Amino acid sequence: MEPTPINLNNRRILLGITGGIAAYKAAELTRRFQDQGADVRIIMTRSATEFITPLTMQALSKHPVHLDLLNPDTESVMGHIELARWADLILIAPASANFLARFASGHGDDLLTTVCLAAECPVAIAPAMNQAMWSKAATQSNRSTLLSRGAHILGPDEGLQACGETGAGRLMAVDDLVLRASALFSTGALQGKTVVITAGPTREAIDPVRYISNHSSGKQGYALAAAASDAGAHVILISGPTHLAVPDRVTAINVVSALDMHEAVQSVIDQADIFIGVAAVADYRPTIAANQKIKKNQDGQRSLTLEFIENPDIIKAVAQRPDRPFTVGFAAETEHLETHAKQKLVNKQLDLVVANNVANTDIGFNADDNAITVVYHDGSRVLPMMSKRALSERLVEIIAQRLSST
Ligand SMILES: Cc1cc2nc3c(=O)[nH]c(=O)nc-3n(C[C@H](O)[C@H](O)[C@H](O)COP(=O)(O)O)c2cc1C
Question: Which of 111, 173, 270, 336 could hold 69 in an S-S bridge, CB 3.0 to 4.6 Å?
Answer without folding.
Answer: 111
